[in-house]
Amino acid sequence: MIDKRSGCPINLALEVLGDRWSLIVIRDIMFGNRRHFRELLTRSEEGIASNILAGRLKRLVNAELLSRRDDPAHRQKGIYSLTEQAIQLLPVLVQLGAWGRRHLPAAPEQALRQRLVEEGGPPLWTAFADELRHIHLGTPLPEGRESVIARLQAAFAQAAADHRNEAAAKDDKQGAGAR
């Protein structure tokens, strides 16, 4: 149950999502397909503490933004899935990321992926949401559609490779100038 300060829709949303970590956890599950506690803990760039992550996961499950089921491969592990409510946050996360990309110093690889999602607009967001529903809710995918997730992962990998190549070229150039 949400402890609400007022009935304002923005306040109510912030009561559920307004802490430092909830949207990061949802982002990592949504865009990074990190579904296990260990993946969320070790693969998040922000370095969330294990006790904070455990609390946020529990809070998000209680708020019905995530569901948790036992991992059939390991009894003590759980698999977290987005609920429909969380999937409907996709446009919000895109717009929040767009603001961050425009006004703050975002990493080049992540800025590229963010820009691709922004430029894809509502048609891309709908296709991405359909993929998320397939992964997390088990709904069928429309046939013949290119995977948005694969496209975003490929763009991120290409941008990361370009960034590494640019850094290596810069290092080579600086090394040649020192001789």
Low-confidence stretches: none
Compute the number of structural domains. Answer: 2
Q: Could you tell me the strand content as a percent range?
A: 5-15%
Task: Work out the helicity level.
Answer: 55-70%
- Strand line-up in the sheet with most strands: 1-2
Q: Helical stretch count?
A: 8
3D structure, described in words:
The chain has 179 residues and is mainly α. It has two domains: 1-83, Winged helix-like DNA-binding domain superfamily/Winged helix DNA-binding domain (Arc Repressor Mutant, subunit A); 89-179, no CATH class. The chain has helices at 9-17, 22-32, 37-42, 50-62, 84-87, 90-103, 108-137, 148-177, and strands at residues 66-71, 74-82. Strands 1-2 form a two-stranded antiparallel sheet. A hairpin with a 2-residue loop joins strand 1 and strand 2. Helix 7 runs antiparallel to helix 8 (148-177). The protein starts with 8 loop residues before the first helix and ends with a helix. The mean pLDDT is 89.
